[in-house]
Design goal:
Elements lengths: L1 H23 L1 H18 L3 E4 L2 E4 L2 H18 L1 H26 L10 H8 L3 H28 L5 H25 L5 H37 L2
Antiparallel strand pairs: 1-2
Amino acid sequence: MNELIFFLTIFIYFTLTLTAHKLFGKTGLYVWVAISILYANIEVLLLVNTFNVQMTLGNVIYGSTFLATDILNELYGSNSAKKAVKIGFFTSISMIILSQLTILYVPDVDDFARESFNTLFNVTPRIVLASSITYVSSQFFDIWVYQKIKDFTNSRYLWLRNNLSTFLSQLIDTVVFTLIAFYGIFEFDAVLALIIPTFLIKLVVSIFDTPFFYLAIKMNKKLTGN
């Protein structure tokens, strides 16, 4: 059942990414990046077993941010893609600040939601640091590689720059986050055991974003006539 839901979420999240772009242009992609970062930070707390591998959720919706920045890079330029990354980073930091302020309140005796709220939003500084560094570094690297491949190939091989930039940036994302968040807490073998399946799941998500990327470019050509 989890495997079926996994592929269903890929289809729905990537479809929503394209829908945001179709309805609102690049502003829609900025909004989608903000939504994705917010929800990924919550969904990552859930642990599931998929393809006989334990994994945290959030990988699919987080992967949709790479689709969004690739579309922005291709259609609107690298500065627009970088702006999306900055919006995502600001959204993440703002959510942390707001939630921590809320936790400072002393709950009323009749309150029933505080314990669940604390479970969701009581974050450790190390995880926050790992998440922030990983997001910014992997996304800017993705934009840089994408643009380099585009320049080198004279804007040909759309599939190459979409796939290669995302594969490499997702590898960096997985390795950097896992090392910063867990190295020294778990044995190195255990950390490595976390990296490999997580990256493989992200790799699958990255592969499936390619047809949606092509569809976004095709939709844009129909709208602009170019």
